C-alpha cells in the first residue's frame, strides 16, 4: 500500500534521500546523457539527437513518476499545494540545486495552477560549452509529461518562457485539466446567462 492509502507519511522523506553517493550518481547519469546526445548528434545529426533525447527523457520521466506514485500515492492535482509539492519533490529526485536552480510559485493569473521557474540549468551550460546550444530542442515538456503520465494524473503543462530561446528564465505553467475545464465552462456559460436576462428585461418592457 502507498503512503497515501495508509494515511501514514513515507518512511523517508524524498529530500532526506540525498547524500554524497546519490549526488555523484545523479551527476554521472546526466553526464552519460550528455555524452550520449553528443554521440548521436555527431553520427546522425542534431535533429535525430533531439528526437531520441526527448523520447528517452519521457521514458525516464514516466518511471520516476510511477516510482513516486507507488511510494507516496497519486497526488490531488486539483489542489495547487499538492501539485506544487509533487513537482518540487520530483525535480529534486532528478537534479539538485547545484545542477538546476528552480522554485514554484502561485499562478500569476490567479487561477488554480502553479508556475515552475528555472533560473539556472546545467544542461544549457554544458551545451553552450560544447557549442551545441544552437539547434538544441529542450525536452523539458517531454520529461515533465512523462512525470504526469507515471503519476497517473491529467494536467495541462505548458512552457511560457525558455532560456534556450532568449528568455530570462524557463517558466512552466501547470494546472489540473479538470480545474481548467471547469473554469472554461464557467466563462462560456456567463454570456448565455446575460443574454437570457436581457431577453427577459426586453419582454417585460
Plain-language structure description:
- It is built from seven helices and four strands; from the N terminus they run ααααββααββα.
- α2 runs antiparallel to α3 and α3 packs parallel to α6.
- The protein has a four-stranded antiparallel sheet with strand order 1-2-4-3.
- It starts with a helix and ends with a helix.
- It is an alpha+beta fold and 205 residues long.
Outline of this structure?
With 205 residues, the chain is of the alpha+beta class.
Largest sheet: 4 strands, antiparallel
**C-alpha end-to-end distance:** 65 Å
Number of strands: 4
Q: Assign an overall shape.
A: globular
> pLDDT below 50 for ≥5 consecutive residues: which ranges?
192-205
Order of helices and strands: HHHHEEHHEEH
> What is the share of helical residues?
55-70%
Short key terms for the protein model shown above:
single chain; 205 residues; alpha+beta; four-stranded antiparallel β-sheet; 14% strand; globular; disordered C terminus
Amino acid at each position: 500500500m502507498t503512503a497515501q492509502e495508509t494515511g501514514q507519511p513515507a518512511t523517508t522523506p524524498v529530500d532526506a534521500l540525498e547524500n554524497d553517493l546519490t549526488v555523484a550518481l545523479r551527476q554521472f547519469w546526466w553526464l552519460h546523457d550528455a555524452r550520449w546526445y553528443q554521440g548521436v548528434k555527431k553520427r546522425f545529426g542534431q535533429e535525430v539527437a533531439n528526437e531520441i533525447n526527448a523520447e528517452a527523457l519521457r521514458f525516464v520521466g514516466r518511471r520516476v513518476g510511477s516510482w513516486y506514485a507507488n511510494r507516496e500515492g497519486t497526488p490531488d492535482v486539483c489542489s495547487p499545494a499538492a501539485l506544487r509539492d509533487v513537482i518540487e519533490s520530483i525535480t529534486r529526485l532528478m537534479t539538485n540545486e547545484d545542477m538546476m536552480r528552480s522554485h514554484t510559485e502561485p499562478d500569476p493569473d490567479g487561477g488554480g495552477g502553479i508556475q515552475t521557474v528555472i533560473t539556472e540549468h546545467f544542461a544549457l551550460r554544458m551545451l553552450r560549452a560544447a557549442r551545441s546550444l544552437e539547434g538544441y530542442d529542450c525536452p523539458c515538456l517531454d520529461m515533465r509529461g512523462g512525470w504526469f503520465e507515471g503519476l497517473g494524473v491529467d494536467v495541462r503543462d505548458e512552457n511560457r518562457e525558455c532560456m534556450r530561446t532568449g528568455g530570462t528564465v524557463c517558466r512552466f505553467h501547470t494546472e489540473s485539466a479538470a480545474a481548467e475545464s471547469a473554469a472554461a465552462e464557467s466563462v462560456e456559460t456567463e454570456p448565455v446567462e446575460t443574454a437570457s436576462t436581457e431577453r427577459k428585461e426586453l419582454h417585460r418592457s
